[in-house]
Amino acid sequence: MIQLVECPRDAMQGLPDFIDTAIKAAYINQLFEVGFHTLDFGSFVSPKAIPQMRDTAEVLEMLDLHKAKSKLLAIVANVRGAEDALHFQEIDFLGFPLSVSETFQQRNTNATISEALKTVESIQHLCEAKGKKQVVYLSMGFGNPYGDPYSPELIAEFVEKLAQLQIETVSISDTIGAATSELITELFKVNTQAFPQITFGAHLHSRPDAIEEKVMAALKGGCRRFDGALKGYGGCPMAKDDLVGNMATEVMVETLEKEGYDLGLNKSELTESLKLAQFVFNY
């Protein structure tokens, strides 16, 4: 079964102009109607670091959850953020960005990789106590622009450490849109076979013309969980390429359905969500 994760948080977080809280909530409520597996809807991080997400708690209060089929995921960057997120029963998953690049870990969470792994362990204990699940994102999972060490073997070492902590979902992230199809297939094939107890996701950034190719490569490697954002909005500022954004969800849906996967989505509500995205993101 395919797990499709829609990421309005990732699409919004880098925008310079603050999106009104009511508009955020209305957009997420519309996304609920589509039937995605999970919505990556907000984050509990420093408002100085990500001012766009400073109203995540307020957005949550405005969500219509009584008929929502999608699960909710919030990103956290430290134990304090995890504790804040765990105050809300409505949140199912806490996502933590663990980088395989020392430079990016410092830039992203102001911590070393060693410190970040300790944070993952602490958050895992908190999640287990509260009946929640942690999703670990392996940032710079397909290479980095800093000259830091990288290899598929390094990814396997990180996954082994996460497996020892009983992490059940690991999303390999192509932060700068550098992944080749060959590397995507290789990484997922090796890890899905070595760690069958873990659900591996693909959080890939891509130029629009490469989305179908990358989805197919991940499928070939055994990946069955995909992150995206409608219209491909968002991405990493360090990509230094305006065309390298999130994988456009509508393109992924088309690709997966061509391959015979029944995603269980409400297509008319997906169309409405695409229209609302044009308004939210000022397209």
UniProtKB/TrEMBL annotation:
InterPro entries: Aldolase_TIM (IPR013785), HMGL (IPR043594), PYR_CT (IPR000891). The keyword Zinc-finger does not apply. Transmembrane segments: none annotated. Keywords: Lyase, Metal-binding. This is Hydroxymethylglutaryl-CoA lyase. It comes from Algoriphagus aquatilis. Pfam families: HMGL-like (PF00682). CDD domains: DRE_TIM_HMGL. The keyword Repeat does not apply. Belongs to the HMG-CoA lyase family. GO terms for molecular function: lyase activity. Residues 1-271 form the Pyruvate carboxyltransferase domain.
